[in-house]
């Protein structure tokens, strides 16, 4: 699972870079994958990326300077801040999703429709016991 997941993530990262978003590192992109639509607290991003909060802070600082994220007040707690994607980061999402669709089509062609559907169902079912953010 790790090898296939990493291969897909690397392809998506390269596609986004090739589309003109070359100033984002793989580490920054992995951190951005954890940002919810409405924004996410830095501590949650660090936990999702499985990195130290200090490392997450440094990555967010660089992403903010590059115009990919912004820090905004958390409406549920005035003392806290959320990290939210800017329109620049959101512009990369359709590129990433298009590459995901190409990868899925290749995997479906390789595995066949039945096995691909089984794989998707099995991985979705595993989220029940492995995804702490579900």
Task: Spell out the key features of this protein.
single chain; two-stranded antiparallel ribbon; 7 helices; 64% helix; mainly alpha; 2 strands; 134 residues
Brief summary:
The protein is mainly α and 134 residues long. It has helices at residues 2-18, 26-32, 42-49, 53-65, 87-90, 93-111, 113-130; strands at 69-74, 77-85.
Please write out the topology.
Elements: H1 2-18, H2 26-32, H3 42-49, H4 53-65, E1 69-74, E2 77-85, H5 87-90, H6 93-111, H7 113-130
Antiparallel strand pairs: 1-2
Helix pairs in contact: 1-6, 3-4, 6-7
Would you mind describing this structure in some detail?
This protein has 134 residues and is mainly α. The protein is 64% helix and 11% strand. A two-stranded antiparallel sheet has the order 1-2. Helix 1 crosses helix 6 and helix 6 crosses helix 7. The longest helix is centred in the C-terminal third of the chain and has 19 residues. It is globular and about 50 Å long. It starts with a helix and ends with a helix. The model has no long low-confidence stretch (mean pLDDT 95).
Query: In whole angstroms, how far apart are the ends?
Result: 19 Å
- The portion of residues forming beta strands comes to 5-15%
Q: What's the mean pLDDT score?
A: 95
What is the 3D shape? globular
Number of helices: 7
- Major sheet: arrangement of strands: 1-2
Class from helix and strand fractions:
mainly alpha
Q: Note the run of SSEs as H and E.
A: HHHHEEHHH
Percent in helix:
55-70%
Over the alpha carbons, how many angstroms does the gyration radius reach? 16 Å
- Major beta sheet summary: 2 strands, antiparallel
Counted beta strands: 2
Low-confidence stretches: none
